[in-house]
Write a structure and sequence with these properties.
The chain is built from 17 helices and no strands. It is an all-alpha fold. It is found in: Cell membrane.
């Protein structure tokens, strides 16, 4: 949870939180900011591919360590950047960290957790994002405007601390087992039961990346002059705090099953995006959007982790890397398309379009059992 919190809550989503300050400091248009967001997700995708290749050879500790150091160095570089090339390099490096970090916990859970508790633990780990987001909000409230770089230095320090902790806790080296892992080919990844999982991950990547990129900008643009920094930070904090309810995702899945949970989560994501896109100046709509989006997005990550573990039980990290690869494709396509749409039709249109895609995801549900 600590590693996921710094890699997602800080390294990945911190860009969207501080987007207005970054735009002002570096004088970048919205279309360029969207392309930068897509570039950060491209680095994430490259890391995922490498994790899928290396997981069975090096084990979870080495991969999580690389991810933590990527977050530490990348966010420090962003804080110290004096031009857009250094800024982009830091954002891309920091953006690779979730790709290194998240999937290896599937193998770590298999090695460290009893079978009957494994799926609940896998559902719990992604909720670290909510705690990271909740911590980032107050920092944005205190350190905005020209002081935003100090927040990124604190982000880097938090990433270093989480990395050191994970080095102490996680098992080193690959799992030592008598059975030989299955040979990987296209057929292994393209098994029939994986298709709806991949499509859901793709949609989830688009919907999530659009919201995280544009939510704060939508609020700051619509807010009264002088109030936008505080409102945006409070929105971020409320979203993260509500998202900590994601720790109960495993219990919800056990009670409702993955299929009904899938319908509920993507429906809530659609409502949250629609509210923010259509009424960003209404405090009630913004507040409800934050409270709905936080837990549903965190639980969506948990749903993918559990669903992938059921589809690929023999090599969990490799299978989950494939799942998150499709999520990564969505996160690359989402910001670039949203930036272009927002430049011509406004930020609200991009958020409403993401909501429509979220509803369409009901067509790719998990198995009934």
């Amino acid at each position: 949870m600590a590693a996921v919190g710094v890699s997602f809550g800080f390294a990945r989503y911190g860009y969207g939180l501080f987007l207005p300050d970054i735009r002002d400091d570096f004088d970048l248009p919205m279309s360029a900011l969207g392309l930068i967001g897509s570039a950060t997700y491209a680095g994430y995708l490259v890391a995922l591919v490498l994790v899928g290749i290396l997981a069975a050879r090096v084990g979870p500790r080495a991969l999580v360590t690389v991810g933590g150091l990527s977050a530490t160095v990348g966010m420090t570089l962003v804080a110290l950047a004096n031009g857009w090339p250094a800024l982009v390099a830091g954002l891309i490096l920091a953006g690779t960290s979730p790709g290194w970090i998240w999937a290896p916990y599937s193998d770590a859970a298999e090695r460290m957790v009893l079978p009957e508790r494994r799926e609940r633990v896998l559902a719990l780990i992604p909720s670290g994002t909510a705690f990271g987001v909740a911590a980032a909000g107050p920092l944005a409230l205190m350190l905005h405007g020209s002081s935003w770089t100090y927040a990124w230095l604190l982000f880097g320090a938090g990433a270093l601390a989480a990395t050191i902790y994970n080095i102490r806790v996680l098992p080193a080296g690959p799992a030592t087992r008598g059975r030989r892992p299955p040979r990987l080919g296209l057929g292994w990844f393209a098994r029939r039961q994986a298709v709806p999982l991949y499509l859901t991950a793709l949609s989830y990547g688009v919907v999530g990346s659009v919201f995280w990129l544009l939510a704060v900008d939508a609020i700051t643009t619509a807010a009264p002059s002088g109030d936008h920094d505080g409102i945006a930070a409070l929105f971020w904090t409320a979203m993260g705090t509500a998202g900590t309810a994601g720790i109960f995702a495993g219990a919800v899945f056990a009670r409702l099953g993955l299929r009904r949970s899938h319908v509920a989560l993507f429906g809530l994501l659609a409502v949250a995006s629609t509210l923010l896109g259509s009424a960003p100046s209404a405090l009630a709509a913004v507040g409800v959007s934050a409270v709905l989006y936080g837990p549903s997005f965190m639980a969506g990550s948990a749903l993918l982790a559990v669903w992938s573990y059921q589809v690929f039980p023999e090599r969990p990290t490799t299978g989950f890397s494939a799942t998150v690869f499709f999520l990564g494709i969505g996160t690359i396509a989402g910001p670039a398309a949203a930036g272009a749409l927002a430049a011509h039709h406004g930020v609200g249109s991009a958020l409403v379009a993401a909501a429509a895609l979220s509803v369409a995801t009901w067509l790719t549900p998990p198995p009934a059992r």
